[in-house]
Amino acid sequence: MTGSKYLKFLNPLALFNTKRTRDIFKVNPTITPERQEADTIVANIFDYTATEIHEFTYNAIEPCTRFNNNGHISWINIDGIRKKEVESICTHFGIHYLIIEDILSVGQRPKMDELNPVLYCLMNMLYFNEQTGTVETEQISILLGRDYVISFQEDASRDVFDPIREKLKIAESKLRLSGADYLCYAMIDMIVDNYYLVMDKIGDRIEMLEERIIRSSNKRSLAEINALRKELIVLKRNVSPVRDIVNGFVRTDSDLLDERTRKYFKDIYDHIVQANDLVESHRDMMINLHDLYVSNVNLKLNEVMKVMTIVTCLLAPATVIGGIFGMNFDVIPYAHESNGFYIATSLMILVPIIMVFIFRKRGWF
């Protein structure tokens, strides 16, 4: 690390990472944000029945159109979002323009819409960055149609759907035997399950921070408390709306959702309610950690004040004796005695010693 990198620590405000605050609260729904279009697009397609499955990968949107109403269940996963390609495939599948706007949006609140011929939900996949200690989000749009699911992701390098891909390759598995609605359920369930992994990481950080605060409370501890509280805001903002999304799937009357699959969404609803409770518990823990930090700082201050008070009290007799014998009077008892200095010095030492024994006996220190 170069010397210039240490300069930020000379400013105490740099410990509190105000840029992260701006990133979290920068969303303004009255302003249309500009999305930076992806350099490349990768379309991964799983086209399957109970007995066979075919996997395709394309770097263009046009080949995906042939998987509409082909008699199979199709999962079209598109990594990388560009306006032209999104409008092209959505137009082919008859997707409403309002949904296209939501897919192209940035920083959208998680939501669920029912616009024929699809059920649409927008969520955020969450990841925990171990290096920076921050929660990272990736917006994903999922379209459930008749015998197909289309998903749009921003980042081609990561997602949480690898277990689903592995299960799809197993013949006669539950995913292969069920319809597109069950695939949609599995994707949302996997996203929600990954929330718990992120919250576990946050929980570990909170426990380690608690131990450090108990051992030593300093400005860096306060900065870490502040940083974790910001990440919990990100968690709360992304986890809380998912309850309404899942509840929308449970209550919808759409024929795209089978009654048997609706029961699985009720299971996700239980999970997301528990996740909300866990986020609230973490927030309560952060409030308690802040109170613990303040208590430790006050305790340290009290210890310092106690020591200073004791020292002041022990020096008070010497100050009084020295002041008495230093008064400018002609007649002061023992002032002109040959042993006067030794008597005064002895008193200055003896009285504080007696005071120490009295303080110890009373348990003052």
CATH class of the largest domain: Alpha Beta
Question: What is the CATH architecture assignment of the largest domain?
Answer: 2-Layer Sandwich
Arithmetic mean pLDDT: 86
* Tally of helical runs: 10
Classified in CATH, the superfamily of the largest domain is CorA soluble domain-like
Biggest sheet record: 7 strands, mixed
Strand order of the largest sheet: 2-1-3-7-6-5-4
3D shape: rod-shaped
Distance between the termini: 45 Å
Give an overview of the whole structure.
The chain is an alpha+beta fold and 365 residues long. It has two domains: 14-296, CorA soluble domain-like (Beta Polymerase, domain 2, 2-Layer Sandwich); 306-362, Methane Monooxygenase Hydroxylase, Chain G, domain 1. The chain has ten helices and seven strands. It has helices spanning 18-24, 83-92, 97-104, 162-168, 174-177, 180-215, 219-239, 242-251, 259-325, 340-362; strands spanning 42-48, 53-58, 73-79, 111-115, 118-129, 134-145, 148-153. Strands 2-1-3-7-6-5-4 form a seven-stranded mixed sheet, with helices on both faces. β1 and β2 form a beta hairpin. Mean pLDDT is 86; it is low at 1-10.
Topology:
Elements: H1 18-24, E1 42-48, E2 53-58, E3 73-79, H2 83-92, H3 97-104, E4 111-115, E5 118-129, E6 134-145, E7 148-153, H4 162-168, H5 174-177, H6 180-215, H7 219-239, H8 242-251, H9 259-325, H10 340-362
Structural features:
2 domains; 15% strand; Beta Polymerase, domain 2; 7 strands; 10 helices; Methane Monooxygenase Hydroxylase, Chain G, domain 1; 365 residues; alpha+beta; 7-stranded mixed β-sheet; 53% helix
